[in-house]
Automatic annotation (TrEMBL):
It is found in: Cell membrane. The chain crosses the membrane at residues 26-46, 53-72, 78-99. It is a multi-pass membrane protein. It comes from the Bacteria. This is Cytochrome C oxidase subunit IV family protein. Its main location: membrane. InterPro entries: Cyt_c_oxidase_su4_prok (IPR005171). The lineage of its organism: Bacteria, Pseudomonadati, Bacteroidota, Cytophagia, Cytophagales.
């Protein structure tokens, strides 16, 4: 009977090379969004449109952080929707409260 050599020889003390490509991809995406935010901050005058763009870009950065570093994108769709739907309703509530607060402030003063 012939001896079979192992397919993948193991060496004592060998450490596998880390897979950091996804970290760098996320880093560059977040860096690009941040650079875009800085460009908008220096080019656009202060307005509701600029603030809305900042909020949208910040939510995009938060999405990438949660998806990559908290591994949400690897979860089941049900869990993802369970987290996203209440969060979107909370954001809608904040926008509604800020809008109403501005309307009351303008009406009083």
């Amino acid at each position: 009977m012939a001896q079979h050599a192992p397919q993948h020889p193991t060496h004592v003390g060998e450490i596998p090379k880390p897979n950091t490509a996804w970290i760098w991809k996320t880093f560059w995406v977040i860096t690009a969004i941040t650079a875009l935010e800085f460009a908008i901050a220096f080019v656009m005058p202060a307005s509701t449109l600029r603030n809305s763009i900042f909020i949208i870009l910040t939510i995009c950065k938060a999405f990438f952080i949660v998806a990559e570093f908290m591994h949400l994108k690897h979860e089941t769709k049900g869990l993802i929707w369970t987290i996203l739907i209440p969060m979107s309703l909370l954001i809608w509530l904040l926008v509604a409260l800020i809008t109403e607060g501005n309307a009351i402030h303008k009406a009083i003063f």
